[in-house]
Amino acid sequence: MSASPLLKDAMARIAADVASMFDALLPVPTDPRARLMEAMRYAVLGGGKRLRPLLLTAVADMYRVDRAAALRAGIAIESIHVYSLVHDDLPCMDNDAMRHGKPTAHLAFDEATAVLAGDALHDFAFEVLADTATSSDPFTRAELILTLATASGSNGMAGGQMMDIVAETSQFDLPTITRLQQLKTGALLGASVEMGAILGKVPVEGRAHLRGYARDIGLAFQIADDLLDYEGDEAAAGKALRKDAAAGKQTFVSLLGPDRAREQARMLVEQAVAHLASHGQEADLLRDIARYIVERDH
Amino acid sequence: MSASPLLKDAMARIAADVASMFDALLPVPTDPRARLMEAMRYAVLGGGKRLRPLLLTAVADMYRVDRAAALRAGIAIESIHVYSLVHDDLPCMDNDAMRHGKPTAHLAFDEATAVLAGDALHDFAFEVLADTATSSDPFTRAELILTLATASGSNGMAGGQMMDIVAETSQFDLPTITRLQQLKTGALLGASVEMGAILGKVPVEGRAHLRGYARDIGLAFQIADDLLDYEGDEAAAGKALRKDAAAGKQTFVSLLGPDRAREQARMLVEQAVAHLASHGQEADLLRDIARYIVERDH
């Protein structure tokens, strides 16, 4: 663990804020829908690093965005992330039994409830963003929604997951694996940064350096994930590891070898930090997040 | 078949417009995501009455909304409807093999692809609504999105589907079955009417009669569905019937008997039409839709 004090504080704060906001926004009704909300709460309150809300609020803070508005947008992107994990863990997808050290949603509940809870969290993300409480400005709301829906759908995360399924029976080369990961993981990480900039009213032409930062940390994050999958500890990860190798699936580690992969991740982090050169200490948290991404142990 | 000439024309027109717009908006890319888009296209181009876009455009026409803007909103609500069918048909849900007379998506492709195609259509709906082409006015876009996300999520369709799963192991009474159906089917039919009114800039206080109309036809639609399930023809329906009875699930027909159920549906249609009394012939299509809903044979 190598998080800076600044990052440690920010991670603890976002974890507490995200948990209390999910708790407040997802009450359990006293009707037969209770099981659905219990499954949604189980999934969103189950832990996780809250990296996407952290990135979103870190960027928003640089532009002095109201914390409550940034947090609501962070809740939306975390809902999308969690719904995708719930569906990804299903028997017909990755068939995973553990997530954050607990049974996955379809085992804690049942498959049908897990499908529905994922679907309902998917809607919940857009409900939160479309609600007037997220931002008083409807232009901003519409831009946030378009950014998130695009990052999540067939031209983003879902497209990357489809490529990931195809990868099980195809031999992808490095450019194709890079594209797969940019969609599967990078799109949502990029949307986190972008949504912070949208809330900060940064004009599109002023976002290029933030997009560069997001692209680089997105790829570095995935290479670090592949390294953790290759040499990490299952207890620290809270989930099964070494599944890609068992499935014969190409990863950055299988294509580059662990040493070159590690070097590549470090280079991407330096590049990500370099994109922030025009910023002073207000970007220190983003710099620390970039370094943490390749040094984390889970 | 008892559609009026007015309704027949409108149904043929919306079917053609919806199909050509889906075709244009969902091109198949020449990369490994192709299979995802093929599954999305298979599901959305597979037929269906297009009742939700029909309702939306019928209301929008009453208020002289631009046809292209109304159609895009109709595409969004149809995407939500179709995604829910794809997930509903999954083995862990209703385990259905036929839909619109064709193999369901998870049989035509595979389960993982069907889950992802549903998820991607879910996003696609919000992408379409958030896009500036849907409406040049961001207030309207945000209101459309909030209406659709609410109707689709845990307080709407997904909540109703959860109740439907619980119904398999519980004995629900008539008020609970009514609530279940208002969520499962009624919420999205209601959103269709509401979104037409939003595009038509009808103020909230001027929508009460349209909401009453939508509530009544939503319930009538479900009773008619239960009657078709009870006494209909599988070939005309293009799907398996009499599954509720086999599962011992309560329906309007099991609770009321077929005669009282039919009478109730007819009464609801009269009530729906009465809500439109303040309108002249511009509401004739809505009146014809209400009557068709209980007289259709599939």
Briefly, what is this?
The structure is a homodimer of 298-residue chains. Helices cover 70% and strands 1% of the residues of chain A. Chain A is built from 15 helices and two strands.
Number of helices of chain A: 15
The best one-word shape of chain A is globular
Please summarize the sheet with the most strands of chain A.
Answer: 2 strands, antiparallel
* Amount of beta strand of chain A: under 5%
**Strand numbers in spatial order across the main sheet of chain A:** 1-2
GO molecular function, one term (chains A, B): prenyltransferase activity
Family (chains A, B): Belongs to the FPP/GGPP synthase family.
Cofactor (chains A, B): Mg(2+)
Organism (chains A, B): Novosphingobium arvoryzae
General description of the model:
The structure is a homodimer of 298-residue chains. Chain A has 298 residues and is mostly helical. Chain A has a single domain, classed as Orthogonal Bundle (Farnesyl Diphosphate Synthase), CATH 1.10.600. Chain A has 15 helices and two strands. Chain A has a two-stranded antiparallel sheet with strand order 1-2. In chain A, strand 1 and strand 2 form a beta hairpin. In chain A, helix 1 crosses helix 3, helix 1 packs across helix 4 and helix 7 runs antiparallel to helix 9. The longest helix of chain A is centred in the middle third of the chain and has 26 residues. Chain A starts with a helix and ends with a helix. At the A-B interface, helix 2, helix 4, helix 6, helix 7 and helix 8 of A face helix 2, helix 4, helix 6, helix 7 and helix 8 of B.
